[in-house]
Amino acid sequence: MESEAEKTFHLFAAFGDSSSSGSNLNNQNFVKLCKDCGIIDGKAITPTDVDIVFSKVKEKNVRTIDWGRFQTAIKELGQKKFIGKSPEEALQSMFALMRNKGPIASGVTVKPLQFLQPTLAGHSF
After folding, report:
1. Buried b (16+ CB within 10 A) or exposed e, 103-125
2. Which of UniProt's keywords are assigned here (predicted)?
3. Domains of the chain
4. Chain segment 26-55, per-residue pLDDT in tens
């Protein structure tokens, strides 16, 4: 199951940055991953919780996390989301939420093409 979660990690790590190798995840994409995969539920885990955990696991003066630090972050969030489960069970439950998920492009709407109509206003023919 870890390999499916790792695929999801790499998809989100590369999301929105064409120059990214997909090996490191920034805070913005970490929050997006947590929202799109249903980890953030607004009750047990909020976007603020995700930000705090990201800041705790990343190296000082670095803006991204790698796969190893990502697992640490997910394990910590899992213990908060799945109270009563062992840390390993919580991690596997978090990985299950991430299975077959990818970034959802939201907020993008395509406006239908409108043709300009010539007007006679202000013109004398």
Report:
1. beeeeeeeeeeeeeeeeeeeeee
2. Cytoplasm
3. 2-98 (1.10.238.10)
4. 999 999 999 999 999 999 999 999 999 999
